[in-house]
């Protein structure tokens, strides 16, 4: 595998990695599932992580075998209902909502000259980064509206390395979802999974929580 000395940049997922907005996505999708009478399960919840808005809606409807019960326009309206609910939930975010250790880690990267970009499926990412006071910490954000395919397709992490002006093998991608780890691996970057090691078994490096993510701990695991 890549040596730590070859790493020059980091591509960050946002929801569940930089801030705990994964719980707000869950809350809003659960409310939507109740509305369309689809049973919410822990498996469905986990499988939605990292998946874009319309893709998530399709997965929920499919779980209840209701994918053919709505027209395209009705599906767009359901997705927009969920997003309005979600945007209300995240409207009060502040820098205090950055996950443990992540503000220090991002500062450490900036101070030491590593480049960082954001590879989030969320169209709300610029708004959230602004609320967290982190916009200037990143070279750029991949615009998910310009992608041909979302996670687990590698495209978003390939684009995140291009934004950094680095080769994929010089980049570590950070993720809390199985779909995201598959995307990083497919892009040829080093994958760093944060959370349940069973769910994130395909990651090159595993950390139980964001609090443990430091350059020293990454170097120790990589070399
Ligand atoms: C991902 C989340 O980061 O963004 C998913 O893990 C979410 O849960 C997706 O569905 C799309 O987000 P948004 O904000 O564009 O609806
Ligand atoms: Mg995530």
From TrEMBL:
CDD domains per the UniProt record, alphabetical: HAD_BPGM
Cofactor, how bound (note): Binds 2 magnesium ions per subunit.
Active site: 13, 15
A single GO BP: carbohydrate metabolic process
Highest taxon listed in the record's lineage: Bacteria
Cofactor field: Mg(2+)
Molecular function GO labels: beta-phosphoglucomutase activity; magnesium ion binding; sugar-phosphatase activity
Matching Gene3D superfamilies: HAD superfamily/HAD-like (3.40.50.1000), Putative phosphatase, domain 2 (1.10.150.240)
Protein family per UniProt: Belongs to the HAD-like hydrolase superfamily. CbbY/CbbZ/Gph/YieH family.
Protein name: Beta-phosphoglucomutase
Organism field: Fructilactobacillus sanfranciscensis (Lactobacillus sanfranciscensis)
């Amino acid at each position: 595998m890549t040596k730590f000395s070859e790493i020059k940049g980091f591509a960050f997922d946002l929801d569940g990695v930089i801030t705990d907005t994964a719980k707000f996505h869950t809350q809003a999708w659960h409310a939507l599932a109740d509305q369309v009478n689809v049973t919410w399960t822990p498996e469905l919840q986990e499988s939605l992580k990292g998946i874009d808005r319309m893709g998530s809606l399709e997965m929920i409807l499919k779980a209840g075998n209701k994918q053919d019960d709505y027209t395209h326009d009705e599906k767009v309206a359901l997705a927009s209902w969920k997003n309005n609910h979600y945007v209300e939930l995240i409207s009060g975010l502040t820098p205090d909502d950055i996950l443990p250790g992540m503000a220090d880690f991002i500062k450490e990267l900036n101070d030491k000259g590593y480049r960082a970009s954001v590879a989030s499926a969320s169209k709300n990412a610029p708004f959230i980064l602004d609320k967290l006071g982190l916009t200037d910490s990143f070279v750029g954000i991949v615009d998910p509206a310009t992608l041909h395919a979302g996670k687990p397709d590698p495209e978003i992490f390939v684009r995140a390395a291009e934004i950094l002006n680095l080769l994929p093998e010089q980049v570590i991608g950070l993720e809390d979802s199985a779909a995201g780890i598959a995307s990083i691996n497919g892009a040829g970057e080093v994958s760093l999974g944060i959370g349940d090691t069973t769910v994130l078994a395909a990651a090159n490096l595993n950390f139980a929580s964001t609090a443990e993510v430091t350059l020293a701990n990454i170097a120790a695991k990589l070399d």
